[in-house]
Amino acid sequence: MSVTEMFSYIQGFLSADQDVREDIRKVVQTLEQTAREILTVLQSVHQPTGFKEIPSKCTKARELFCTVRTQLSELKTKFPVEQYYRFHEHWRFVLQRLTFLAAFVVYLESETLVTREDAAQILGIEVVREKGFHLDIEDYLAGILIMASELSRLAVNSVTAGDYTRPIRISNFINELDSGFRLLNLKNDPLRKRYDGLKYDVKKIEEVVYDLSIRGLAKEAETEANK
Amino acid sequence: MNKREGEGSSSKKAVSDANVNVSSPIIAAFKVFQQELDTKHDKYERLVKISRDITIESKRTIFLLHRVTSVPDVEGILSEADVKLDLVRQKIGLIADELRGEDIYQFHRAFTPGIQEYVEAVSFQHFIRHRSLISLEEINARLVFMRAEKENVKVPVEAAPGGTHVLTFQVTPSDYLLGVADLTGELMRLCISSVGNGDIDTPFQLSQFLRQIHDGFSYIGNTGPYEVSKKLHTLRQSLGKVEDACYTLRVRGSEIPKHMLADVFTSRNTIMDPEEGVV
């Protein structure tokens, strides 16, 4: 094989590769659009009036996740399944956002941490690599960490809206999450960087709880709830 | 960074661990994640280590091959390089073992430097022996390993008769491309050292070969991976050095006494004519 032939063979390979990436990019763009829509729906829970509407917002978000599922199944058709990690970078960001949104919905509904299986199910994808397009563990964890900072914001806003018990529940939840993350041996990678931010979220929520308890607002709310 | 975090969490740990139920579903889930992440990181580290060994051995092979300019026994060096490259291939076999049933692109970053270095070494040897560019298929054809039968073997493995499995390792086209780009640097060194040894045949062959590779890279341009455009710059420099060397040889050649010059010209005319237009 001559040098020229060899290079035109490689060139053929590279342009085919670029076509695939182009296709993926298009689908990922539509996914990002949907993710933004879901985020807009969920953002309204921070409004004082939004607290009462949490269940309806969640149903609305769940409906939008149907679109996500169809878009993700379209993405699956764009490349061979065993080359997931070759193109991973293209959808990594959006998949983390979507995991965050799924986790946030689940938290608002039931105040529990979404499992990796449930998150994958909401997105209509697999958990284990062997079965096809899956939710990478690091992306799942990154999504959870995004949710943690969203919850610390929610704690502040729920006090403003007059809900004094929610911050305490959030605090317990985040603390548990924090001790969970402390079990992990993270390398010096993007996930680790993001995890380093978790302690500030923990701190912020602890301050909110402190403010409530020093003013007796936490107890007041508790007795009110008991009545 | 580590230190700061250690300070931050040690005091808090006692507090939060006290009011966290250790057997809660969250903690249980994270214990599973811990295992999964650790397994993945361990595999990655093993691959990095193998890749480093491959890099070292390949570099040594390249150094060995550079000795061909000063030694009469070229064949001896080439076969010694063959032995060394066989060792490297065994190491690549270890990578193939690790990647059995995995997505090779998940760990690609761990071993790509080693593979590029191997491509460089093997293509360098191929050039010295055959004066041509080794193709990607030829490289991949040598990276087939026989393994004794094991259970749970998956994707890259095809069943073969006799209780063994064929395990293959595929060099990706971009690794090949980057390896070839590195090769040009070695060829430039080979050119300069052969001039030093009074060999005026090799530099002209090399400049022609390098020009072909340069044209190939220009053809690919920026469709390739990001690193290619960086290497293209170095490639231009190498090519410039080789072309300068040929130019000097040519100019010096005209100073050689007439009866010897005729001798030089008859053997080099065809290669040198296109040369003049460029330099």
Describe the structure.
Chain A has 227 residues and is mainly α. Helices cover 75% and strands 0% of the residues of chain A. Chain A has nine helices and no strands. Chain B has 279 residues and is mainly α. In chain B, strands 1-3-2 form a three-stranded antiparallel β-sheet. In chain B, a hairpin with a 4-residue loop joins strand 2 and strand 3. In chain B, helix 2 runs parallel beside helix 4 and helix 8 packs antiparallel against helix 9. Chain B is elongated and about 90 Å long. The termini of chain B are far apart. The interface between A and B is large, with 47 and 51 residues.
H/E element order of chain B: HHHHHEEEHHHH
Summing up helix and strand content along with how strands pair, one would put the structural category of chain B as: mainly alpha
Low-confidence stretches of chain A: none
Largest sheet of chain A: none
The poorly predicted ranges of chain B are 1-19, 150-161, 264-279
Beta strand % of chain B: under 5%
Cα end-to-end separation of chain A: 86 Å
Number of strands of chain A: 0
- Mean of pLDDT of chain A: 91
Number of helices, counting only DSSP H or I runs of 4 residues or more of chain B: 9
- Identify the overall geometry of chain B: elongated
Annotate the secondary structure layout.
The complex is a heterodimer of chains A (227) and B (279).
Chain A lengths: L2 H41 L10 H23 L11 H23 L5 H8 L13 H24 L5 H17 L7 H7 L1 H17 L2 H10 L1
Chain B lengths: L1 H17 L6 H42 L7 H25 L9 H23 L5 H7 L1 E5 L8 E3 L4 E5 L4 H24 L5 H19 L5 H28 L4 H21 L1
Antiparallel strand pairs in B: 1-3, 2-3
What would the keywords be for this entry?
heterodimer, A: 227 residues, mainly alpha, elongated, B: 279 residues, three-stranded antiparallel sheet, disordered N terminus
Would you kindly provide a brief summary of this structure?
The complex is a heterodimer of chains A (227) and B (279). With 227 residues, chain A is mainly α.
